[in-house]
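Inverse folding, one chain.
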């Protein structure tokens, strides 16, 4: 007898099942009945749908009622997982951080393209690994709030035209009667996040390892400010070191800049703007010259040095619109102007001679800022006869480059500090 394929309400089949049936047995019986009644084309269809075909199932010779909702149960569940979840994640991310920069409804069409959805979802899910830094998070929160630690640092010093704050960390071996060289650490955060308190443990360890005073300033992250405002704030922190540092036994003529990620970009860009005596910084030319003469070197950790290249990398990861980078740069048209790779090539011969040496560190497992960023900047510096050392560090990712500097028990602590100390020593020996 020919099978009759129908699509009745689900309850008709459910009523025919004994109470002892469980769901798995129900599906197995349905599939067993169907498999014996299908011709070759219908079997191919089930294979296409990825439904199992039980081996050796006898042909059923009576009318069979099929519930297609049950047959597609697994496909619907898989669809919810592989379609619903990524779209949900991406919609929330774009709603919070911004839709594509397209007119009218086109921004939603662009934002809902499958490739963008899955790439953006992957980027968001990659952030789940930050939970492994939970213990470290509570450590720095607790340490910074503990008033008993005030002997190690001076917190909340006001500086600059916008009244920003900086913290100052002393080396444990500091001689009260001797001035100490100073390291100005600029944190990262994609130009749109970050605060100085997060890096208290890093600054403390850095002061100890380098036997220097470490200054960690805040700056005007987006949307409070754009990249020019950030450069102004960092310039103001260097000016503070020059003018007020002696009150804290700081050697104002021996400054080393260290920055991570966006912070490395800002260290390089600020120095190049000061060398070029940029009027937009609002600092007298003589003071700019004095600051750059005092900067003995720059150490960049996983830095961004070509904004256009990094924008292309963000596009590949489908995060260019949720990223704050293009907004902080005031649009794509300003990417070259705010790229150290381009800025240094605009300097004339005399100004090039004033560029301090660079030490560039980058992890080979970095997927947020690819290692090519430091490699290409190193090539540009070398072509201009600027001293540069490049350290490519295997199995080190973007976050570990900075978090592993916060405690001696971190996996890459001694490896990264070994490179930093080597560069720092070269800078000091050249003074």
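Residues assigned per position:
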């Amino acid at each position: 007898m020919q099978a009759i394929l129908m699509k009745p309400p689900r309850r008709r089949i459910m009523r025919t099942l004994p109470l002892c049936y469980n769901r798995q047995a129900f599906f197995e019986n349905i599939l067993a009945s169907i498999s014996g009644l299908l011709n070759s084309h219908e079997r191919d269809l089930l294979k296409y749908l990825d439904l199992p075909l039980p081996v050796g199932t006898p042909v059923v010779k009576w009318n069979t009622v099929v519930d297609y909702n049950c047959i597609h149960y697994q496909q619907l569940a898989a669809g919810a997982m592989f379609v619903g979840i990524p779209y949900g994640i991406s919609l929330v991310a774009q709603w919070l951080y911004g839709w594509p920069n397209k007119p009218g409804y086109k921004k939603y069409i662009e934002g809902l393209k499958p490739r963008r959805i899955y790439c953006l979802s992957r980027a968001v899910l990659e952030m789940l690994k930050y939970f492994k830094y939970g213990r470290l998070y509570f450590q720095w929160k607790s340490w910074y709030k503990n008033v008993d630690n005030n002997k190690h640092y001076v917190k909340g010093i006001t500086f600059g035209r916008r009244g920003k704050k900086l913290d100052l960390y002393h080396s444990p071996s500091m001689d009260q009667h001797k001035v100490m060289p100073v390291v100005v650490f600029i944190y990262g955060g994609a130009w749109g996040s970050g605060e100085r308190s997060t890096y208290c443990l890093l600054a403390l360890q850095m002061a100890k390892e380098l036997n220097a005073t470490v200054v960690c300033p805040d700056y005007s992250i987006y949307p409070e400010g754009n990249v020019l405002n950030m450069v102004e704030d960092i310039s103001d922190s260097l000016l503070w070191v020059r003018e007020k540092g002696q009150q804290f036994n700081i050697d104002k003529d021996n400054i080393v800049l260290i920055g991570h990620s966006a912070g490395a970009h800002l260290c390089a860009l600020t120095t190049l703007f000061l060398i070029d005596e940029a009027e937009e910084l609002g600092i007298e030319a003589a003071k700019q010259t004095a600051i750059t003469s005092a900067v003995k070197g720059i150490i960049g950790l996983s830095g961004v040095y070509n904004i256009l290249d990094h924008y292309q990398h963000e596009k590949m990861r489908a995060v260019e619109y949720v990223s704050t980078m293009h907004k902080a740069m005031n649009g794509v048209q300003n990417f070259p102007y705010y790229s150290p790779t381009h800025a240094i090539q605009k300097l004339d011969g005399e100004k090039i001679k004033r560029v301090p040496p660079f030490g560039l560190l980058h992890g080979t497992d970095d997927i947020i800022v690819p290692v090519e960023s430091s490699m290409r900047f190193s090539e540009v510096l070398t072509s201009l006869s600027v001293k540069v050392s490049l350290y490519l560090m295997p199995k080190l990712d973007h976050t570990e480059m900075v978090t592993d500097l916060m405690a001696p028990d971190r996996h890459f602590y001694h490896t990264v500090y070994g490179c930093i100390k080597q560069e720092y020593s070269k800078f000091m020996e050249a003074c």
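The chain has three domains: 10-71, 89-129, 152-429. The longest strand covers residues 250-260.
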